[in-house]
Specification:
Elements lengths: L1 E10 L5 E10 L27 E5 L1 H11 L7 E4 H24 L5 E4 L17 H19 L5 E5 L3 H7 L6 E4 L1 H8 L4 H18 L13 H10 L2 E8 L7 E6 L5 H4 L4 E4 H5 L7 E6 L33 E8 L5 E4 L13 E7 L7 E5 L2 H4 L2 E9 L8 E10 L3 H11 L9 H5 L14 H6 L1 E2 L6 E5 L8 E7 L5 E8 L1 H4 L5 H9 L3 E2 L4 E2 L4 H7 L7 E11 L6 E12 L2 E4 H8 L14 H32 L29 H24 L5 E4 L9 H9 L9 H10 L6 H14 L4 E4 L28 H18 L8 H35 L10 E10 L2 E6 L4 E6 L7 E4 L5 E4 L1 E5 L3 E6 L2 E6 L3 E9 L7 E8 L14 H23 L18 H13 L2 H12 L1
Parallel strand pairs: 3-6, 4-5, 6-7, 15-17, 18-25, 19-26
Antiparallel strand pairs: 1-2, 8-9, 8-11, 9-10, 11-12, 13-14, 13-16, 14-15, 16-17, 19-20, 20-21, 21-24, 22-23, 24-25, 27-28, 29-30, 29-37, 30-31, 32-33, 34-35, 35-36, 37-38
This protein binds zinc ion (ZN).
Zinc ion (ZN) binds next to loops.
Amino acid sequence: MIKTEKILHLKSSRGRKVRVVREHYLREKVPCFSAGCQAQCNNEGKVLPADLTHYVVPDVGVVLDFLEILEFREIQGIIFTQTACQAVQHNKGRRQYNRLRNLLRDPRHDCVLFANEFQEYSYCPREKGECHEKWQTRCVYSASVWYYNHLAGLKDIVMVTEDREAVTQYSSLYSGVYVISMQEYLHNFWLDVHAAHELYSSITQAALGRENEGSEKEYIEHLPSELLEAGIKSGRYVQGILNVNKHRAQLEALVTAQGFSNKSTELSRDVLVLGIKHRNRAIHGDSVVVELLPRGEWRGRNTALTEAQGEERSAEAPRSQPMPTGHVVGILQRNWRDYVVTFPPRDTPNQSRNSQKILTVPWDHRIPKIRISTQQADTLQDHRVVVRIDSWDSTSLYPNGHSVRILGRAGELETEVQTILVENCISVSAFSEAQLKEMPVVSPEQPWCPDPGQVQARRDLRESHLVFSIDPRGCEDVDDTLSVKQLPHGALELGVHIADVTHFVKEGSLTDLEARARATTYYLADRRYDMLPEVLSSNLCSLLGGVDRYAMSVLWQLDADSLEVKSVWFGRTLIRSSYQLHYELAQSLLNGEEPDVPELIRLPPEQRDRNLCDLTQALHTLTHVARHLRAQRDRGGALELEGVEVRAQLDSEKNITALVPRQPLEVHETVAECMIFANHWVARKIQEAFPHQALLRHHPPPRQEHFSQLQDCARAQGFSIDTRSNKSLAGCLEQAVDPQDPVVNQLLRMMATQAMSQAMYFCTGAVPAEDYYHYGLALDRYTHFTSPIRRYADVVVHRLLTAALDQEIDRSVSVGSTRDMEETAQHMNTRNRAAQHAQRMSTELFQCLFFRDRHPETDSDCLADAVIYGIRDNGVLVFVPQYGLRGPVYLRSRGGEVVSVATDGSCDWSSGTLTRNADHITTSSVSGSATFRLFQHITVCILVHTNPCHADALNLQLVRHAPHKSQSMRPVGGHTRARLVQEVQRQAEEATLRASLRPKLSREEKQFSQSKQPNLYSLLEEIQELSLMSSEASAQRLCATTA
Ligand SMILES: [Zn+2]
């Protein structure tokens, strides 16, 4: 090892330049991480494949400016030098540096790090008078030459640099080491990766655009980080996440204190930030530091209704009460993501065509306009485009960014669906070849069969147990199966057998990484994106009837009379499901009807009768056990929140005729109860084995103040709701029924659901034990074990359970750290929230598409009955049962006019006043006064408020102060909804047809055609879900039913 000195020029956080001399050790052996190594390097971990045509070594400038191009998985064989990595760390900050580190860690990307400055022969000390950039370039070139020699000249090396001089100087020195520019590189080697070329030109345009910017200050400078930190410590400044109010994006933002601290004090620590100037270039989601203004300048929040505010929480801030108000003085961490923007139509066509700065409007109201320099301004108008923000200097009124890819023309179904995915950070590219290579090969000629070693190692239940599944009709991915058996001496054995996904998905494999990144299967209104490759989700891990499958099983021995659990067995099994039942079939067997069971049709009558008798007996026993389990939880206070109409799961149903039963079947409950039981017992098991590293799911009790809307509404109807415990709440909701109006109970349950906290994953070591409780299910410990095909949490839990069982044999078995597990839990919580948002947005999209082309005056579909469930300053909140919509109805117009009601109930606008009370609101005008009360039925007209830059929104307008007449003729839901779906699909097909006749804009327009047959079932389901609960709550419900 050779010792030398290295001089570093670092920048302190105050911006001062510091010269540091460091001892620097050089080694002969530094791993090359190439599979083509000729020198037996110690290459551990990721290596570059040997069969590539070349390796590429990007220069410092290229890594700094074009990292996002190097992130394309298509670009293989990248060697990042230590020199370039350090430059990113010093010049671009933590976020960009982490991005590079993640890239290097990610096995799906073909890139490695070469410690060139530690390698004796590639290191070059800086020469006297040599400028820093030139020296860095020389280092990178020297590293390139080293690789060429180290690999014995067998591999061409391409160094990419934007330094013209370097190209001339180095390109002819060595025959196997090419030195070219980024543009040439992309052109020569990756001509067909169009997206990379487009991104290249967009980034270079953006850089050009920044060069000629003004120098006048638009915002005050951010304070240096030492001052921010000192200010936070001393209590002078408050640190938190900036949260822009999407209804008043220009005006109102809150800074919410960071961390998972005590919730009750959190509210009082929110700081209001008013106006764009006070926000000082912070963007929604950024971690910021604010300074409070003097008390005299504190303001209150606005509480009048604005567009689409129906989703508001029940706990309202007191009206106009002044609260801590401040301004942003610094930003600790940017939290920028990819944004969808719309290029505005251009009204000045005679401007210069080249290189223009366009102010684009983000789809998300909370994000400020972004300035994009582009040469494609004409082509891009009215298109939705994905952009990234590059910078926001104090001299610039708006942030600068560059475009990444084009989604398509605004307003078209595919564009809008892709927009929803990007806005929720959902990336669902097809599974890569390398990932699919990890999967077993199966074909009709070569079906999968269990491995003899596995047959030995597993408990074989194929002959001993009658196993069956109960799912929605046509379900392809069967996660779970059940068994129930009489044991000698009268005891009962209940069994839950879950697909053994972790046998096929090894921890750390490419498939595992992809599944972890997705964290869940995504269900949109008309399509789904699977978490696992199809060969697993609908074949090897699907517990189909009549075939051998690996399972993870839980078997309970229950006392025959008391049904008390006497013992539990967990373990890996081999099963063969005998029946793949659907809910209706199982229920009709229970009801004593004699339906055709497909599995039995071909049997001789005697055999058939015997088997049918066994199956029916098993279903009855199962129902008996489930009733007992449910009663047990009910005594503990389990909640039934949804005003149930539909209970089935949201996935994989393709069969349109399988319309959802309006009455819930008991067998739904039975299956759900068994799954809840299994999840609970697995939670106990893994928590006992790993008290600090178990992954559980809890549901915190709601905050009492969130119940105020529910209580006000219930009181208006003469009910009182005791919300002190889940048990009392469940009891009161059960009682609060208006025999004249079923919507009343539905609405009260909806409000109760809205008041709920969200159920979340957590790691046991990161949360005090008293917070493990699951409020909704009334269980002290709970987790997700029963759906490993579509939820990553269950995959993690399966691994924990396996480790717990291994530990019984070998005490030394351990699992990862609390910190890692908590990080996984938070990641899954974030992805689940994104999945719910995307699902809700896609349903809203379909609703808008349905109403968009209808004429409200002539089309009777646009008129509907609505029920008032909330009173606001300038209007009411209503629920439209027929379409499952919620939203505001204004009683005062923007111009200040109020609604006046004629004697026949018809409504008009005239000048007058508005008086709000707790349970009613009254308008007064020359033509008299009219009062709108909670739970009153009114007639509304449904209009679509179109907006070229954002999502369309439904708009409800008051038509008559009376119930909608034809309403009583129609059942709730039913035909109308089925028609809605068909209609929207027909429109979308026509639009696709029109689009195919238009000249193509780009490949991206057609990029996502992986959606399967439109899934009517799930849309119907979702529309109904939406009617009943907020997005948060629908997740809980989904979990309770699939749990
Ligand atoms: Zn080597």
